[in-house]
## 1
Amino acid sequence: MNINGVPHRTIWLAQDADGSAIVWTLDQRKMPHFFDFIALKSSAEIIVAIEEMWLRGAPLIGAAAALGFYLATTEIDKNASDWREQITEIAEKIRASRPTAVNLNWAIQRQLSILAKAKNLNEAQNFAQQTALDIVEEDVEICKQIGAHGLSIIEAISNQAPDKIVNILTHCNAGWLACVDWGTATAPIYQAHDKGIKVHVWVDETRPRNQGASLTAWELGKHGVPHTIIPDNAGGHLMQQGRVDMCIVGTDRVTRNGDTANKIGTYLKALAAHDNNVPFYVALPSTTMDFELQTGAEIPIETRSEREVKYIQGLHEGTLKEVLLTPNDSPALNYGFDVTPAKYITAFITEKGICTAAELLKIMND
Amino acid sequence: MNINGVPHRTIWLAQDADGSAIVWTLDQRKMPHFFDFIALKSSAEIIVAIEEMWLRGAPLIGAAAALGFYLATTEIDKNASDWREQITEIAEKIRASRPTAVNLNWAIQRQLSILAKAKNLNEAQNFAQQTALDIVEEDVEICKQIGAHGLSIIEAISNQAPDKIVNILTHCNAGWLACVDWGTATAPIYQAHDKGIKVHVWVDETRPRNQGASLTAWELGKHGVPHTIIPDNAGGHLMQQGRVDMCIVGTDRVTRNGDTANKIGTYLKALAAHDNNVPFYVALPSTTMDFELQTGAEIPIETRSEREVKYIQGLHEGTLKEVLLTPNDSPALNYGFDVTPAKYITAFITEKGICTAAELLKIMND
């Protein structure tokens, strides 16, 4: 999407001055206050970037993993007889860099099955590069299709009244910063905005890591989409007041019955939407489906450091400072995700179309 | 309650070195990082303390207003013939210092009706002092009674299993820091803890002003009550996981039908409690009832500065620093309260006993 009018992607493959392959990405840790494109020059640097969340978001992690796999193939001594084992070893390290990310596992698996067909290292490099680039382009295309399908929902609300502003609530960042371009939850919003439909986005700040207040607000602002940041506590009241026309969120994992894991707090917004007859949509690429799991009860929920609750980083007199928010000796608990039961989800917006939980398996398998 | 083993109150009347009346209170703006008792030496200083939230919480604001009214009576020239008008004028300024605070209005009204009986300034001073001290002591007694009634609920859960730890979720700060002592929502918790019942409190951080993470966590910690700070987003997941036995919150205003205004985000927790069969209690002194209003739709909801969402204060290398959390040019919206419909409230815990919404008018009028 646009940054100050110039189209950008979150990740792309390039060549270093010496001709070696490098991966460019955005360092999202300092956003929204500073934004830097950084060059990742090795699979080890890709692993650090995933582990330390320089980049985040399921599709972007998948793309980074696929590109990291390609970098790995360029790091092997061309005379090594165990090149296949060496690549596989690095692939497993990439896979372990963010254990709950389904797309990461999927991207590595796809690369490994193509690696199996390579007869030599040179072929392995070519296959891995092409697969990584395919994954990147496919992600852009998938998000674009999610956008096209979701656009119809926004358009229908917009048509309810002349000059209607469609108020859309979103949680966390399922935006282009989490993907390669367009985003998942934001794709319909960008397409509606680009088409001239009046939209306004309520951006949940999304404690404790504030991906909404920092990333979603940033990307909407840079693309020129009207938006307002709200505390996570406010969405219920806004829905009671009739100030939300629809919710769209992304997801980290959807089980066969439609139960949906997403950033902690999503479930509370789904409850409020249900209580106030506000439609609640989950946008997802089919790669986010986890066909192995029957229901949300089987989804493991990551617990992260309590430090993310007790401290926060922000801008103070031009530099980033981390401040303590709580009594130093009070413990904190930091769940990464929660599970929204399928019954609270109006529909899923996928690259293959819009469907209910009951139709999910069919549309995803088509 | 105790601060490191020493019993304290949040506000009390004392004499300055020159014999003039002063009011001591806690400056809650720097908490939990620093805590200072400060002397308020005039009604004007009381007004500033209420306006700028050095002190907050409906009952504490009421007590401060009553004491401020008494200070006002000591500030009038003893030869002034219009002493009654002068006091009334200051009283109206105190009343206007936090327009949505029901207890403030109630305390000023009570002082004014007693002022009407005073035959001279000296009598007005005596009456105002006694009324202020009565309001302070009554608040302590009311909170103690709320605690005694609520204790029975905690005790019943504790008795469900040997060594059962009762997990209680609370939102914002309806603790002793919001009252004179005990608190409203926390009173049952303190009484259970003091009785040796095993309790553990999930403390919602309560964005944007973080009264939970800063004040509730601080006061529970200082009194020795086990607790864990959680992001506001986490409560729903904890309830889904069966890790919450009950919720208790305070309230700023309850209407005749039992609809309950409380800190923004309370409604979301009530929805989650309802969805997971977790009992949801509202603790309130009868002074918080607003008999003028039929339902929550009539409650005006205060909108506060967007700055409270965009910036946050915390401790950095030993000093308080305010940091920017959002893109500088993104707007934010900051509602102070939301309304929880009576149907989501299991029962009200009042100084007169425990009752449902349907029984509220009867118990409060008894």
## 2
Amino acid sequence: MTQTTPAEICLARWARSIRTSPLQTMLTKCRPAISFALGLPGPELLPAEQLSVAAAAVLASGPGALQYGPPSEELRHQIVEIMRWRGVECKASEVFLTSGAQQGLSILAKLLIGPRGRVVCEKYVYTGFLQAIEPMMPEVHTIETDAWSGPDIDGLEALLTRVADPGFLYINATGHNPLSLTLGGEARIRLVKLSARALTIVEDDPYGLLQYEGDSAALKSASPSSIIYVGSFSKILSPALRVGWLVAPEHLHTALASIKEGSDINTGTFSQRVACRFIASGGLREHVSKLACAYRRRRDFMLDALARTLPSGSRWTTPSAGIFIWVELPEPYDAVELLDRALSEHGVAFLPGVAFCAKDSAHESARRSLRLNFSHCTEDQIEEGMRRIAVILRDW
Amino acid sequence: MTQTTPAEICLARWARSIRTSPLQTMLTKCRPAISFALGLPGPELLPAEQLSVAAAAVLASGPGALQYGPPSEELRHQIVEIMRWRGVECKASEVFLTSGAQQGLSILAKLLIGPRGRVVCEKYVYTGFLQAIEPMMPEVHTIETDAWSGPDIDGLEALLTRVADPGFLYINATGHNPLSLTLGGEARIRLVKLSARALTIVEDDPYGLLQYEGDSAALKSASPSSIIYVGSFSKILSPALRVGWLVAPEHLHTALASIKEGSDINTGTFSQRVACRFIASGGLREHVSKLACAYRRRRDFMLDALARTLPSGSRWTTPSAGIFIWVELPEPYDAVELLDRALSEHGVAFLPGVAFCAKDSAHESARRSLRLNFSHCTEDQIEEGMRRIAVILRDW
């Protein structure tokens, strides 16, 4: 029988230019001694023991936990309470369970953009958002942004007069990834006003419960129906459970359920039940407080180290939420080159700003920018990692 | 502040016609006393106790099970062995882990079809396949098929001369859903020859290990590179774990990983580790044998009941694999009407043939056809359910 060659499998046009994402490279290929690269929880802070108890209870409750079944009603009710912590009043019937926030974005891309539709995001954006929308081959319209002033709302308003019917604006209002900014009141008011007029907003809020100063409510709290909220247990419970949620108007849920069914079956999973049991035990609020406390210490520790380490003319953010610090080095430093040397010579990883540029939109400062994660490493590792980066910068 | 109305969220064009799938309706809305409607494992056959032991061991092994991390290498190696049971020799590097077979289909739709691409399937097809491809708004080309002679390969060859570059042909070669047919040798040889020439084939094989007579190898066994295999633990271990796999040429894995990352993050999940631990304990082969034995008995029990129950002029399949029997009633019976009465008056469910018709392709016989599942109910339930259906048919 004639054997085919692999080349004969013909890929869809958009898929021919797929490259490994910087995040996957860091997760699967690089094994740096010290990593500030990814948005990983601190491993020693994961509640393994309580989740073990929860898993045992779920499996002891009968075969229903292993069978196809509707998404967990109880978990949807628990999320109504979690949304209250974010300042959002919603009903369980508005909560749609997903396999993590990333699936929420992927489903919304299908629901609201569709093939070759339009979408708006900031020039610096979570790379997973771009990966969620790319299979639709959308027109991506970007607005200016930076880590200190946030998204250019004037620019957004101007863009909306030019670009007809964008599917939605994608935004992190609290603990931005990668810029680490939490939006101020004025920007929030203007965004909410825009959403009330013509613009659907998708608010991706994985870090909303990890706040260190103040307590910014979700953007969704001000405008119930035209802002779709994307929530996640990955940063506050466990990434490997793959449980997240959307808060979206009830009339969208038939379509959401059908799209999820087409994506990975819209069934109540084992993980949903384990998360639900853990939350039912009452431990989530306490766990989130413990995380926020630990991460605040790590943030402060890294800020101290940055002040001692970075060359004059550098600037960096002091994030009030989230798990990243955004750093801009002065000329002539280059973050991509810095990463190469940090990885190969010192076993230290971070991600350069250019990794987060939406297509067709490279900022001049991107090559001098770094995203540093502070949740994953211990204080000793932060100290040592920053010391190694300082060595490279000193000898530049 | 002005409140928006829900109507202001504008859906992508394809999404405006989404309706709840018949499978979701059965899973979430109907609670019939006896259901032959869905492809559910028998609940009492799920290995809850062994999975409980596995979950405890996974969680006791440290926080890695709850953290982001690469897909499970060990599980990929275990799947190489499982593929041997299906007659397929492959490498672990060709195994790509998914959140169930459905996600495998959704990823392949993005990879191989793309926005407004082309695809080929049979006129009767698994509805989840259509849901996986719909967000791409593809041109769906169908070939004739029936439960006794299988897909019309002559028609497929003719279609391939008319339709340029279809992304792939979707097929169940073993234990077809919904038609219950297992393809004979000649059809397999012709399909493999076609795949060696110009046609990528996606072989969805969730029932390949549930065979009752004979031992049909996967189509993939005959042609390593141009057939992509879709596998699942949902029918042989637990649907709620959401673990499945693809076997695809290595050069596609960068793109597969990126698409999965965009869909729900390409990370090793808790469920993967639990499945892996269960398999490592050596229990899978024995469990599959136990299932096949139990399902064979249920199949035979249902076949007996059909012979006693159905009106003269009916015909039905004797499936050698899978978990469904396909029934065709004579004129003037109507399966949709039968379902209405069975559900509302007798608490019995099944799915009518029309639920599985690919768009634009209704067979004349579809309205007289039923798909009956025999894996989910006990023998007593099968007896009672068929008795109730017989009552309706007798009084037609």
## 3
Amino acid sequence: MKVRGFTASAAAAGIRKQGRLDLGLIYSQIPAVTAGVFTTNLVKAAPLVIDMERLKRGMAQAILVNSGCANACSGEKGRAAALATGALAAKALNIPENLVQLASTGVIGEPLNVAAFERAMPQLVAALSPDSFATVAEAMMTTDTRPKMVERSADIGGVTVNFLGLAKGAGMIMPNMATMLGFVVTDARIAFPELHHALTSGVNRTFNRITVDGDTSTNDTVLVMANGLAQNPWIDDRAAAYFTTFQEALTSVLRDLALMIVADGEGATKFITIRVSGAKEAGDAQRMARTVANSNLVKTAFFGEDANWGRILAAMGRSGVHFDPEKVDIAFNGVTVVKNGLAAGGDAEARASQALREKEITVDITLSDGNAREEIYTCDFSIDYVKINADYRS
Amino acid sequence: MKVRGFTASAAAAGIRKQGRLDLGLIYSQIPAVTAGVFTTNLVKAAPLVIDMERLKRGMAQAILVNSGCANACSGEKGRAAALATGALAAKALNIPENLVQLASTGVIGEPLNVAAFERAMPQLVAALSPDSFATVAEAMMTTDTRPKMVERSADIGGVTVNFLGLAKGAGMIMPNMATMLGFVVTDARIAFPELHHALTSGVNRTFNRITVDGDTSTNDTVLVMANGLAQNPWIDDRAAAYFTTFQEALTSVLRDLALMIVADGEGATKFITIRVSGAKEAGDAQRMARTVANSNLVKTAFFGEDANWGRILAAMGRSGVHFDPEKVDIAFNGVTVVKNGLAAGGDAEARASQALREKEITVDITLSDGNAREEIYTCDFSIDYVKINADYRS
């Protein structure tokens, strides 16, 4: 499956280390309607500041992405370096500079090595191909153990529109924004307000529902480029069925990418869904699920395959959500371990321990205060998380 | 040094495991003015609920404390068991039940084993001695690697008043309340309002400034008992110098205990002070210092002895405090690694890496927004933290 008009390529530019793919380029043959969401961290890396300025016009034609250097906390030099790399790409592609979006990930505190970009650029542009998106997913990786790519299509008014999504991200993942790099290209024809709305609502339902370690990066970026080459009927009305179809397809791409990130969380051995039901309001359910999902004690218990529901109740109790502890049920993969706030007894713990040997675990927390329900996706907290982060310079 | 009228003892009651001290008793020969602060967690263990009821009269004569079982999330059975153990102690001491304060730590989700208390009680009461406080500190330990005890004295109107403090706590330590068990006995003569004020303000400046893992326990309790046997001039006026002297002595006991807890944090290899200066308001400085102190990425970097200031800036940026990233200085043990938001350059990183080999590290974060300054105390995040919490059932 291809997305009409989009090509990609990657190169081993030697930005931080030699001999591994670390530079990627995504290109649309015509300017694409483009929307973005960026980190909520006050400390924003140089490329994000530039991207946000450029996206005011809602248009882009290329994304230049590198690993090895985040170009964050790098001051004027960092900004100049980001602009210089964008200019190199624009010149090589023969497009205006302000149609190039920039994304960087890696070590904080150093500006980009522009010379490395300059050496790699001719080859990078020459290699552009509709079949090379997977190599860009690889070039984006830092502590990721595998590249993350999703393809999807949808029918808009009898026309098949295509989506291709890429993501990276394994640490500094916190449920307060996109929290990684995610790029989606589509040949759908859609107006900017609808694209922006579909992206922000989709991110809110997907990337904003995952957490690995509660840290929000300085470089989180999600971009979606829609070049319209599918020539589907215009999607320009948020109340129309076309928009809903588009939004659902985009959200499903974002969700798959988000879940891939959690499953590849630093040191993760388990994929965990924390589901809170019976809450008074959705905000309550979400806050409680997040507090549980971010608890180091809960996460280490899952690593230890310990049906330690006491830590879950303790985390719920400090979430700031009001509830009746004596009307709480908790189940692990369908095995009820807590009934009305007390140990379920019998062989429940033994069966729960068995259930926790699974790779995918759903924790069902049921309150008695209403009908709201929310899910947060996370992973366990392992010895390898500490090893990775004690050794890796991010 | 002794505290007039106070005795203590400990026993191996076999509450969860055989052959280790797990039950402690602290006794005052006359009823003592007593103040307490308790967890802010909505889920409160049975003994805390009873203690809070009993402390409405501001008086107690004994503290019965056990490890091995937190008696939290244990329902009516847990409450009945707590009351039963208190009644056993009251009967053996021949004092009213409502003068017994109860404290439990250990596994969540099971009621106390009352029979174990019953068997141990005669011996526990018979062994009461002014010299046995250290054994109570030992009986309170769970994942603590060492008992925590502090002695101090102060001069109030020409009379020496004495303080003795005990604490336990190594995990589930979060800067939102006392967050462990802490008991202070003193022979000072002080009125309840002054004692309560000295305790709450002291806890706020000490225990509420530490964090190990960001989790708040269901059982956190700090109690101070003042039996007045020193017969110092009454401390009953918050504006008087006597009160200030008392408050400073109590706070210094609380601080020493709090710092001992951090130094003995689960898996800790470093004692870390996060100091934020130059903030607009104290609340800002505290919030930023806490966010940095709770960041897993910052804490694993310290474990790795990595001068990774980028993670500190990233944590500052998501703290919710407004600041100018380009006017931030950061120093590790006096070695400036960030100047005006940028890498200090030269041999700063090499010298900082050297500094991080120390056991005690102070991180100085300087903003340019005002004169407020706050400190938070924490520890690093090691492989052993994960091992302890994947294996230990809390």
